[in-house]
């Protein structure tokens, strides 16, 4: 009987010890996190803007998707000016521009640089001319030069195309060709309002000349070819080192007046990171 009572007392002591240990474990917080585990980034978001920045944003969004599978960015082209309006109206989550922001625009939106793009001068793929100077461009678009035969070509007529006034490619082109002077176009210069319309127009006439964003999209289009300007090709290397002069900065933008959503903020942080900057720079 003494042995039985001793055993019962030992068992009771052991159980009490285990209970005390569990109580101390819980009270010390080892089994319960002190703060809730953050929810994973999820959702579908929109990004839109200038065509010059489109390849970079597409590449950034694709890589961000790999890092955060629950997040999807729907990326589209709408133009740099439209991107600013859409961001300010909260119609889209992320804007992107392929030109420098004005001082007034910087008061309403913030830009995160993602590299540079350029405005390429394009001609029909059959045109033998491969290089033009800035002065020759001015003469063509002002109507002073009207035949390719004076420039080493074979076509008797030059048909010049230009983008709409608010297109970043046109603004960039004008600042290079006319510098500080007011652009003066010849009466026969034809306006095109979309990238595809410009490429199709230049393809449709052997004597055509136009402008487009410098990049893989334009370089890969067999209907047209990009000209050297003052002997310099519109390559990624020449854009980066500044030797190709018709160049413009690229950036993603957000409104200063709204609270950025967590997933969008994470995307902007990724864009600013060394990896994000490398991806943007290589998306030419």
CATH topology of the largest domain: D-Maltodextrin-Binding Protein, domain 2
Which descriptor suits the 3D outline? elongated
Number of domains: 2
Task: Characterize the main sheet.
Answer: 9 strands, mixed
What separation lies between the terminal Cα atoms? 90 Å
Sequence stretches where pLDDT stays below 50 over 5 or more residues: 1-37
Radius of gyration: 30 Å
| Helix content estimate | 25-40%
- Share of β-strand residues: 15-25%
Write the CATH architecture name of the largest domain.
3-Layer(aba) Sandwich
User: What is the strand tally?
Assistant: 11
Supply the number of helical segments. 11
Which CATH C-level class of the largest domain is it? Alpha Beta
Element-by-element helix/strand order: HEHEHEHEEHEHEHEHEEHEHH
Structural category: alpha/beta
Under CATH, the homologous superfamily of the largest domain reads Periplasmic binding protein-like II
Mean of residue pLDDT? 88
Q: Mind sketching the topology for me?
A:
Blueprint: H1 2-27, E1 43-49, H2 54-67, E2 71-77, H3 80-88, E3 94-97, H4 103-106, E4 109-124, E5 131-132, H5 134-142, E6 159-163, H6 168-177, E7 190-192, H7 195-204, E8 208-214, H8 216-219, E9 224-226, E10 228-229, H9 236-241, E11 247-255, H10 262-272, H11 274-282
Parallel strand pairs: 1-2, 1-3, 5-10, 6-7, 6-8
Antiparallel strand pairs: 3-11, 4-8, 4-9, 4-11
Helix pairs in contact: 2-11
